[in-house]
Design goal:
α1 runs antiparallel to α4 (102-117). It is elongated, with a radius of gyration of 17 Å. 47% of the residues lie in helices and 0% in strands. The chain is built from four helices and no strands. The longest helix is centred in the middle third of the chain and has 23 residues, at 60-82. The mean pLDDT is 93. It starts with 6 loop residues before the first helix and ends in a 10-residue tail after the last helix.
Length: 127
């Protein structure tokens, strides 16, 4: 279990970045297509509105690109260097990896994006 108060805790668990008490997402199963990026409007614990401004999560597309590249590079290294496949098979492996991990990449990108702007605050009740 990651320590409460660390950004990495909120990023990996998808919990509210301010109080880290509950999930930002409606469904726990991110592989359910209708619930992959479906978010609660606000945190029921601390009241933080997740949509900080209209179209706020469009910025997570930039993060998604970087996270996707990281997954693709990791897949290439595994397929080409560790499994000793040819380039064509490694390319197919990269495509398969990106398809299989797309829901994870989408949520992870949103989690990273909101954590750029909202920090943990154990005294959120006082503000």
């Amino acid at each position: 279990m990651l320590k409460k108060g660390l950004k990495i805790n909120s990023i990996l668990t998808g919990s509210c970045p301010r109080c880290q008490e509950e999930s930002m997402y409606e469904g726990k199963n991110m592989y359910n297509p209708s619930k992959t990026i479906k978010m609660n409007t606000k945190c029921s614990h601390c009241g933080l509105h997740y949509q900080l401004e209209p179209s706020f999560f469009y910025g997570s597309m930039y993060v998604s690109y970087a996270v996707g590249v990281a997954f693709g590079v990791a897949a290439f290294i595994i397929f080409y260097f560790f499994l000793k496949t040819n380039l064509k098979t490694a390319f197919i492996g990269i495509c398969g990896t990106l398809l299989a991990f797309m829901p994870i990449i989408m949520r992870l990108s949103r989690n990273i994006w909101i954590n750029f702007f909202v920090s943990y605050n154990k005294n959120w009740k006082e503000k």
